[in-house]
Request: fold
Amino acid sequence: MSGIIISTRVRLARNLKDYPFPCRLSEQGRHKVNDKVRAAITQSNSVLQNDFEYIELEKLTPTESVSLVEKRLVSPEFISDTSGRALLLSSDRSLSIMINEEDHIRLQVIKKGLALEEVYETADRLDTLLDENLEFAFDEKLGYLTQCPTNLGTGMRASVMLHLPALEKSRAISRIAGSLSKLGLTIRGAHGEGTEPKGALYQLSNQVTLGISEKAAIENLKNIALQLASQEEQARERLCAGIDVRDAVSRSLGILRSALVISHDEALKLLSNVRMGVLSGQITDVSTDAIDELMTEIEPATLSVSAGKSLSAHDRDIERAKLIKSKL
Reply:
């Protein structure tokens, strides 16, 4: 299963009892919520108090904001309206707190590999720290109150990022997606709802938050993730036995190591092929970690941020090719 499950994420939605949901808050109200949430972290006695950077979204350039989405540190919805929104981000980028997104607080913990229990425990500790200084909107029957009814209850969305090129090539994803919905889970593109899967990267997450405990939701997600990983392994073994797939993998690596100009979508497709080749044992001089890093670093906005200047689409394609060659 190693290598198929790239990362684990747990996100908790919380709202402050005495304030309307963000959609009904004035700009002044949003700033008050920002100040209260920020103080709950920075003025606490926790070891985390000095580990967070406070970022006002209005002070970022559009490119910097999009790069945060590309790195999965914030949601696309969060950067769609910068007014009165802020971000608390840990130094290692594993913990983030979006303030005034759809809910007052969207705290997120992310970690490499399959680590659902560990990630949830960290999110729960951060949630407890906030709860000690803030009073959350909570109902005995409905649980945590959220702007969207689909998040009522635990307010938790747990997800795992999977690389499923063999299942994608076998055209099994649509069948799997239909079965997952019956189990209270959904599978989407890497950036969640409304995003198309690229590079065979898929996000598997829980849909049900009401009438189920966090532990039960996590256990269900973990079991299904392991089943999907097993199916991917079996499909990969069948596919990689054929010379056509092995040839596609070799050609992909050759293009990535020699191209002078390469688009985002082509690069992701070729990197996905190479990653499958690494996991099947065909490619031995490239690591999955290097590919995973590249899949984020070659994103359009992130390339521009790294360059320290605005890049045209063609310039990005040139820089992307240079970066890939240097890494591989």
The longest strand covers residues 5-14.
